[in-house]
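Quarterly update from the structural biology core.
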Amino acid sequence: MTTALLAALSDPALLAAAGRSKAWPFEEAKKIVARIEKRKDKSRPVIFETGYGPSGLPHIGTFGEVARTTMVRTAFRVLTEDKVPTRLLCFSDDMDGMRKVPDNVPNPDVLRANLGKALTNVPNPFDNEHPSFGHNNNAKLRSFLDTFGFDYEFLSATEEYKKGTFDVMLLKMLEKYDEVMAIMLPTLREERRKTYAPFLPVHPKTDVVMQVPIEERHLDKGTIVWTDPDTGERFETPVTGGHAKCQWKPDWALRWAALGVDYEMSGKDHIDNVKTSSKICKVLGGTPPDGFNYELFLDENGEKISKSKGNGLTIDEWLTYASPDSLALYMFQKPKTAKKLFFDVIPRAVDEYFAFLDKYPEMDADAKLNNPVWHIHSGQPPVSPMPVSFTMLLNLVSASHAHDKAALWAYIGRHTPGVSPETHTKLDELCGYALAYYQDRVKPFKVFRAPDAEERQALARLRDVLAALPETSTAEDIQDAVLAVGRAFPRFQDAAKKGPDGGPGVSLEWFATLYQVLLGQEKGPRFGSFVALYGLRETVAMIEAALAGTLGQE
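Predicted structure, tokenized:
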């Protein structure tokens, strides 16, 4: 048991709150509690599973599925006070035949010559020690999961088929062949029905995973008979021992029944497939797992993310600009709601993560279990105060043209004495992310707008007011001064808002002007807080550069 989980289980208030929690991982975990109460063997481990297709490298969806399943598993362990054993199986479908050559691999001709073979029978195009393409991608998956500290057991389809894990259920599927076909055929196009079979024999001469009709079945021998369409040669193949595998929907059902899977989630696009595989699982005498269908991610235009289109955000890209914790937060929030996944969501996710983390210690037990950081950190979030937001760091980089952490820390140290890279390692990490994000995702798109005549007057007035403020001015003092300048110009007044003297307040146009003219962007931070961090003298110089038309000319 992890230290974090021990801490959660030792808190009576949290244990009591767990039964009341409406957080989605607890709602899912309650379904599993109800499930195991119905079964006879309550000592059997509860099996959580996630699947992975190793025809490509792990991606952001892989992370999301394992992270979300881990959250449900942790909630279940708390609800049951960890008295019921659990396992998380990460299953690799590496016995699937390779259908096409990926675009992003070296030596594609090596792969092209082995199309149709199981991924673990395809030579490795990479210059490393792994014996096959499938083994290489499996190693990437395991390294990927280990990087995030997931607690899981890895299973290879090739190994499990070959060592007989599925043999009993494969023979059962052979026996129930007609029933399985009756479930599958209505889900297929008419042309596909003519050649479909739930078994895919492995060609004994070429190692190709064959998609061919089954001509004969011999229950007494546990074999199927089929014909090679290219040579006309007939073969009799055992369905056991790795000599054949199942088509993917029957394979999913086979796995559920053979491994006793209790919980597996999947994307919304698999709703009908889950229903089909569940029917087959019941035919095999198994009980389909519980789970839920999460929504898919969209790009910035609201279109479904596609690996072939390349219109999404990869996990490597996210981790270039932000921590795994911020990505885990994004996965936690509203899993049944379609969300856009593109670069602009990263800063907000980072700041929301630290905001949740900052609030956590002061929360009561019920609120803690609804706080995403409890689920992200399996019951014991770290203490990591963040005196400067990620968004503010981005604006600081933008205004200061900083190229390294040391330059950023010079501003931070002046603004918040006693804070250093040694005392705030997470902030130091955030500085690195901010530098990378600004350089790649902000700077290329900045457009500094020249101020018009009235804006020039307002900016000149702001320059003079800021120059007159003492260096000890707080962020609130500066913000009040910025608001006062805006209120002095009719163009920037908002009658719907009230100023401190009862007169009109300040419109958003004033702040839009500051962002567009001084920062070269449409949105920005609370301006008083930004000036306090960046510095009064530095802001005055920035305004003078904008008035001179030299701002943004590095």
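The chain has a mean pLDDT of 93.
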